[in-house]
Amino acid sequence: xxxxxxxxxxxxxxxxxxxxxxxxxxxxxxxxxxxxxxxxxxxxxxxxxxxxxxxxxxxxxxxxxxxxxxxxxxxxxxxxxxxxxxxxxxxxxxxxxxxxxxxxxxxxxxxxxxxxxxxxxxxxxxxxxxxxxxxxxxxxxxxxxxxxxxxxxxxxxxxxxxxxxxxxxxxxxxxxxxxxxxxxxxxxxxxxxxxxxxxxxxxxxxxxxxxxxxxxxxxxxxxxxxxxxxxxxxxxxxxxxxxxxxxxxxxxxxxxxxxxxxxxxxxxxxxxxxxxxxxxxxxxxxxxxxxxxxxxxxxxxxxxxxxxxxxxxxxxxxxxxxxxxxxxxxxxxxxxxxxxxxxxxxxxxxxxxxxxxxxxxxxxxxxxxxx
Amino acid sequence: xxxxxxxxxxxxxxxxxxxxxxxxxxxxxxxxxxxxxxxxxxxxxxxxxxxxxxxxxxxxxxxxxxxxxxxxxxxxxxxxxxxxxxxxxxxxxxxxxxxxxxxxxxxxxxxxxxxxxxxxxxxxxxxxxxxxxxxxxxxxxxxxxxxxxxxxxxxxxxxxxxxxxxxxxxxxxxxxxxxxxxxxxxxxxxxxxxxxxxxxxxxxxxxxxxxxxxxxxxxxxxxxxxxxxxxxxxxxxxxxxxxxxxxxxxxxxxxxxxxxxxxxxxxxxxxxxxxxxxxxxxxxxxxxxxxxxxxxxxxxxxxxxxxxxxxxxxxxxxxxxxxxxxxxxxxxxxxxxxxxxxxxxxxxxxxxxxxxxxxxxxxxxxxxxxx
Lengths: 371, 371
Known about the structure:
Chains A, B: Keywords: Nucleotidyltransferase, Transferase. Chains A, B: GO terms for molecular function: nucleotidyltransferase activity. The structure is a homodimer of 371-residue chains. With 371 residues, chain A is an alpha/beta fold. The first copy, chain A, folds into 2 domains: 8-281, Spore Coat Polysaccharide Biosynthesis Protein SpsA, Chain A, CATH 3.90.550.10; 286-370, no CATH class. Chain A has 11 helices and 17 strands. In chain A, the strands form 4 sheets. In chain A, strands 6-9-7-8-10 form a 5-stranded mixed barrel, surrounded by 4 helices. In chain A, strand 1 (8-14), helix 1 (43-55) and strand 2 form a beta-alpha-beta unit. Chain A is globular and about 60 Å long.
């Protein structure tokens, strides 16, 4: 295994419930705390394991909600206390990643940070490492750098990043400037992007010097930036940390880092991208989870759950079993069945995106007990 | 309400698990012990309530498995002990109905018995009563009489009875001879039968003098007949009853009364039929249960279960809920979801008949605990 990168620190924002994966994913057991691939580890742990060879021992920070502190520490027994950055409530990605940057830059002014979601699935780790190493070299030159996934199909489920001019950077032969960001396309557009090869999936990975990232936030969102510095100043004092969060955090503007940092930086020719050639999925819904677990065989029934007792007669799709009940499927195609102790979901791959609506409806109808 | 018929005794064979209704219907909670119509009563109780005005108080016998004795007595608190006829194991309908006939004829040599399954659904009770009263008048003339249901659609799910010559019987203006029995037809044949109007659904209802029925069994199945007489002789002696059943019952030939009695009687011009104009269903599978509970609205989602917590987004079909779990259905059409504490079934109306295969597979794979 290659050695870790000296001046690199990994940041894992572990927020977001994953409403489209309800009732598997819950407020108290969000997506990143589940093993969705049968790896035997949670997505969070897989993310950690993927990053540790790059960042080195003890050089990963996790930004998560206070409610998940115990679960996160349980999953990551090696994490230093000062690297568990707790939010009192979700304030979107600029606040989460920006706070980590502000805290880490006080410890190491030259530090390069890389932010990677806690709940994505990545296969072929050495290709991931290769992309990150190139991104770090690019960041070292002062760019904010993202990793865009080379599409494996014309997906309409992801946003895209368009590459423009190539950059010449030692140790980053694939580095290019980002021309623009594109929202989720329709199928025809996605097909054109797929054929073009200069469009990459936006996987929300950002690698940058912490000071460069903070400068960009300062320019676009000065108030937010000031709040982050104030919080960071209090951070390493255990007594001051909690009260500072309580006071400042709820006032921070909610804005995705894509809008506060990435798009403005791209407009200035300041955002670079490294294409990622590894398998990547954000496991956005059960259709995606089914695909991920069916090993590419279309008529398969994927089964998730250690004690699953499934009897299938000509069924395909996915069963997630969190109970010991016998689950019998007869003649249902592309079905999604999620069986948990207090809630059951039945839908199809086609309608998997609409599961978020169920969560909204459960809130509205006073059945929040199962969220 | 009209008065009961003096010399009439109703017999309710309450056997059969209803495998196509698994996991709702179980070995220890067979179909007849469920409320499948939202009436607030089990099918057995509904059957009893329908027959009591015809037979009179205390004049209904139930033939059931020993395992169901407590449940049956609990459902039918008024039933005299001597009218609960317990089988040590299922030996098919000739044995069940024949034993009831043999027991009752010893009490009342002239008795007319009518046998009606415990797990059918009948609506419009006064039309049912009218059919039974005609059948009793016909039986009084020495015929074995069945009630055939006037089809409401060209069903391929039922066997048919073809009427032949009309009979002239006082009090039974619709009585006719049975020409023949026909097995479940294909759709084209069913359509022809439906147009023809002389084909009726075979609902397995038989009304006859007990001695006439026994004479027919004696002619076709003399050994079986001898066993029934021996059992009946021991019946009203509480001490002798159990041992006699233990010894004789397991040796009795398993044969449906359709083959031992109805078809031979029809061949001799000895079987009559009264058309039934009431709504009838044998609730043979979940597709039928869905139809029964959707009030004829095709795109409805029928929901069975007192404490059902169902959230449906553009779903149709049926949900049976025996747990307090939230059940969420998204975009599934003609779906069948049966949610019980230890087993879950997901199928579609189209495949509902195949549920019996699940039960067989569960037996074969050692998961009989959920049967």
